[in-house]
Write a sequence for this structure.
């Protein structure tokens, strides 16, 4: 077994362990951190497969943006974990059945791919790396030529999702304090701050004179 194969088994074992801990960790913060670890291991496996662009995209997009945002949301909302795990064992048989079915489908697809790889004639031309070959360049050609319309449809769907999220956030609610951004932009310093001149020291007021009736 060479070094590349050993690293593949190492990264895959850590990836499986991290994925298992994502669904078994009681603390959602720990689950998110294990998911970050799983993303890093998947990126390492992709680097071994010479898919550097996908590995960097996974780290930058998911680890650098999505998971950081998820961690902020989890830590700021103070989620009640007990209520979320109340129906775990109730739905566990169905979830296990679906997971086993997906695992069998993936095994069937991967084993079929491995059998094709045994034949040297079945290896695609893109896999035969030559000097100056760039998989990022080939991926860009495929995205903007053969898969241009699916890429545009995915971009439109993401744009609609962004607009919907902004609309849900800015809607008027009775229990929220709404501020007009236009008024915030047009505000001036004199409307917010008022300077008052006051002496640095103020003399204490004189004590009232004593009354004879009070002494008695």
């Amino acid at each position: 077994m060479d070094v590349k194969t050993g690293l593949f088994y190492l990264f895959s074992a850590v990836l499986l362990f991290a994925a298992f801990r994502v669904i078994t960790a009681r603390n959602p913060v720990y689950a998110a951190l294990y998911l970050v670890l799983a993303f890093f291991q998947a990126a390492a496996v992709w680097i071994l497969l010479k898919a550097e662009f996908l590995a960097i995209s996974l780290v930058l997009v998911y680890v650098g943006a999505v998971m950081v945002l998820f961690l902020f949301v989890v830590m700021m909302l103070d989620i009640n974990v007990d209520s979320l795990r109340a129906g775990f064992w109730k739905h566990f048989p169905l979830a296990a059945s679906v997971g086993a079915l997906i695992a069998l489908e993936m095994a069937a697809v991967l084993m079929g791919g491995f059998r094709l790889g045994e034949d040297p004639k079945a290896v695609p031309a893109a896999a035969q790396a030559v000097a100056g070959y760039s998989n990022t360049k080939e991926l860009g050609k495929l995205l903007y030529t053969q898969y241009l319309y699916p890429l545009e449809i995915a971009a439109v769907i993401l744009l609609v999702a962004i607009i919907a999220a902004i609309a849900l956030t800015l809607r008027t609610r009775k229990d929220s304090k709404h501020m007009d951004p236009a008024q915030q932009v047009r505000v001036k310093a004199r409307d917010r701050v008022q300077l008052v001149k006051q002496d640095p020291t103020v003399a204490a007021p004189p004590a009232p004179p004593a009354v004879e009736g009070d002494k008695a």
Summary: The radius of gyration is 31 Å. The chain has a mean pLDDT of 79.
